[in-house]
What we know:
It is a single chain. The protein has a single domain (8-14, 65-235), classed as 3-Layer(aba) Sandwich (Rossmann fold), CATH 3.40.50. 22% of the residues lie in helices and 29% in strands. The chain is built from six helices and nine strands; from the N terminus they run H-H-E-H-E-H-E-E-E-E-H-E-H-E-E. Strands 3-4-5-2-1-6-7-9-8 form a nine-stranded mixed sheet, sandwiched between helices. Strand 3 and strand 4 form a beta hairpin. The chain is globular. It starts with 7 loop residues before the first helix and ends with a strand.
Amino acid sequence: MTDREWSLQEWDDWWQKTGERPDEEKIDSEHHHHEDAEEDDPYAPAVNKMLMKHRRLCFGEGESKRIFLTFCGNSLDLKWLSEEGQEVIGNDYSTFALEGFMQEHKLEYDVSTADEFQVYKAKSTNLALYAGNFFKLTPDLCGGQVDAIWDTGSFQSAAIADRKTYAKSVAALMKPCSNYLLSVVNFKDLRTWKGPPYTITDEIIEETFGDIMTWKQIDSAPWADYVERIVLLQLKQ
């Protein structure tokens, strides 16, 4: 099976069409989310359990840290981290997704521009969302380097040809002591679709990040039909 990569426009269309894939492929799962899903449906919107479990790798008790979320969309992780007292910075190409997040949670916000990015900054909480191409986002544009990065499904969905660029972009946002928490899903032999999300193996992690970061798997747990893996990466000193 030959993998297919999505363009940025196709990702934006995916958000606006509520998950309708541009390749018209279906991701089949006996647990797949339906409108009448039970609360324990793994596909239903929820704060990532692994993020909550490993929160101390992002921020300490009573601490306020700068935490960046890659390809964040309208993730509930944004809201949870903000409510935990953190300074939250998110990025996604889709203005539709970011505006939707602000409106869904009834957050008043200001809109400004930073270079090519449209910036949505909440008035009542320390949350800023940057709409634009992640590879063009620099620390200068988003207020400086961050203390931690939470990546759930983002690297796993990035175009295969862009993986090295993705790693360099993440590294540029990190301080020497920053933690980068990467969540990837092992689809085992159940992946039948050609586009994202892709299977991420240890070999891919090493090939992509090994020159600039150390890494180790720190956790794993069943997720729907698959297995979620949590990898901790840190810049090489």
